[in-house]
Amino acid sequence: MKNIRNFCIIAHIDHGKSTLADRLLEFTNTITDREKQDQLLDNMDLERERGITIKSHAIQMDYEFEGEQYVLNLIDTPGHVDFSYEVSRSIASCEGALLIVDAAQSIQAQTISNLYLALDNDLEIIPVLNKIDLPSANPDEVTDDIVGLLGCDPEEVIHASGKTGFGVENILKAIIERVPAPKGNPDGPLQALIFDSVYNSYRGVETYFRVINGEIKKGQKIKFVATDKEYFADEVGTLKLTQVPKKSIKAGDVGYLITGIKTASEVKVGDTITDALNPTQEIIEGFEDVKPMVFAGIYPVDTDEYEELRASMEKLQLNDASLVFVPESSAALGFGFRCGFLGMLHLEIIQERLEREFDMTVITTVPNVSYHAYTNKYPDNMILVNNPTDLPEPSTLNRVEEPFIKASIITKSDFVGPVMSLCIEKRGEITNQTYLTTERVELSFDMPLSEIVFDFYDRLKTVSKGYASFDYHPIGFRASKLVRVDILLNGQPVDALSALLHDSTAYGIGKKMCEKLRKLIPRQQFDIPIQAAIGAKIIARETIKALRKDVTAKCYGGDISRKRKLLEKQKKGKKRMRLVGNVEIPQQAFMAVLKLN
Ligand code: GTP
């Protein structure tokens, strides 16, 4: 155990975590040149395209240092707030963390939030000043920032470049010298922490774990504490570039486990693995069931594809335990599913995977967060509102609560004004303002989650000219004045266009929605009135004027082939449209509420 080091890399997005991880793997000969591939750890197609690490992984390196052989386990952490729970479990599996800071960008919001997570878990922090090869690098100033943040000596900050490989040897030396070896009792009852799992269609779910006490052996009967299920450890091993089966994985080490589990939801990140016959009495703290934060309806464009959509969603859920869905029906769209996601990025990923991997064309309705509603009749009975149609009638409604977050924003001092205005517009309340340096300020706000899941991040980037970073965590439910804004087309309410909005913004947004829909819905043979309403009260109105001419009219003269071509073209254009009553609505209309500015 004394020669094992478990560490993770924490960084703000794009500060070079994946690139540096690749350099470590090369330097320790964990990957050969032939296997070398950019951003090796991001092996899902989507991940690579988006340039973000969506799922955490682990990899083991062997490294000889001063005549001794060391085992270094690098546990990768995802960089996006949607996946912050996974970050926290990866961090809990380590004794040390490389804190990567971009030498041009300095400390950003996720640098700090990840650092706090690492400090909460008593990790040894090794600060790394990365990208020092950049002409725009500011090594002295950024080192000062890091020293100010950590209270360390400037000499402790390692200068490095993932691009050129500079400093990599020093990083490895620091990992060995500064990160403590794991503690734990190798002879105690098995206690292992699940920090990740990956679905493999051939082998079932692969569970990644860190052994705290005892050992996990091939063939052993084990138990997952939170789910209380027992399995046989069909295969255990260490994670190199490929999986290396072993007879056992001992206290302090990291490995994978295959038990033949076929559904991702049976393996819960944060759960404890123990021996079924001699279970540990201690469970590892901090287990949480991952809760979806954003809900939206997903419907097939073609109503005949409902069953196919169900099958596709079930398959997706097998390998993504954080996706939840229940059937729902909409008067406008027919049968579909109400789905829960970790955040907007997760929603986009699922939508994209449905289209790419399953060839489904779907319509996604206006997303909303989850609210708690109470009626006058049963004021103590909480109703979970994941769908606008679940909100009780205004006259029967006692109160509503909505989820709040603590947001942390780091920006240049020049932009404090615009950032504050934006947060106040988004119903934020400032709780703290700290000057990290004379140039850089950290602002803390309590804000409703609903205000940030949609366009907040883009707006923040705009008002700060790109110089603001942002992170958040949930802080519970608070009272809210929530209303449901319904949209009527041609006098008919279209349930799939309803949105849950705060009273103070409902009128403005209702009006903008009508304007936007007028532009998005194609003209038809008749006038279409668009109205926004709260209950029976109309709050806004627009009209889509009727088409004046038949589109095929200019093909008079009977060139039938040309006419057919035009009609074919129209048909294609219709693909992403849904006929609601007698009005055709394109997909963008359902998401219009998200992009009103
Ligand atoms: P996420 O996984 O999205 O959090 O990003 P990351 O932190 O892993 O960053 P990544 O390694 O993907 O690097 C982000 C960008 O910075 C890429 O375009 C890299 O090519 C570039 N980059 C990384 N390290 C260096 C470096 O040392 N010097 C220079 N000049 N560019 C670098």
UniProtKB/TrEMBL annotation:
Matching Pfam families: EFG_C, GTP_EFTU, GTP_EFTU_D2, LepA_C
Membrane-topology descriptor: Peripheral membrane protein
Q: What is its main location?
A: membrane
EC class, as a word, reads hydrolase
Recorded GO molecular functions are: hydrolase activity; translation elongation factor activity
Query: Which InterPro entries does this UniProt record tie to the protein?
Result: EF-4 (IPR006297), EFG_III/V (IPR035647), EFG_V-like (IPR000640), EFTu-like_2 (IPR004161), LepA_C_sf (IPR038363), LepA_CTD (IPR013842), LepA_IV (IPR035654), P-loop_NTPase (IPR027417)
| Assigned EC number | 3.6.5.n1
Subcellular location(s): the record lists:
Cell membrane
Give binding positions for GTP: D14, H15, G16, K17, S18, T19, N130, K131, I132, D133
Which UniProt keywords are present, listed alphabetically? Cell membrane, Elongation factor, GTP-binding, Hydrolase, Membrane, Nucleotide-binding, Protein biosynthesis
PROSITE patterns found in the cross-reference section: G_TR_2
- The answer to whether keyword Zinc applies is no
At the top level, the lineage of the source is: Bacteria
Protein's UniProt keywords contain Protein biosynthesis: yes
Where do the Tr-type G domain residues begin and end?
2-183
Enumerate the catalysed reactions.
GTP + H2O = GDP + phosphate + H(+)
Q: Which family does the similarity line name?
A: Belongs to the TRAFAC class translation factor GTPase superfamily. Classic translation factor GTPase family. LepA subfamily.
Function as written in the Swiss-Prot or TrEMBL entry? Required for accurate and efficient protein synthesis under certain stress conditions. May act as a fidelity factor of the translation reaction, by catalyzing a one-codon backward translocation of tRNAs on improperly translocated ribosomes. Back-translocation proceeds from a post-translocation (POST) complex to a pre-translocation (PRE) complex, thus giving elongation factor G a second chance to translocate the tRNAs correctly. Binds to ribosomes in a GTP-dependent manner.
Q: Which HAMAP family match?
A: LepA
* Name of this protein: Elongation factor 4
Organism of origin is: Lutimonas vermicola
Task: Supply the gene name.
Answer: lepA
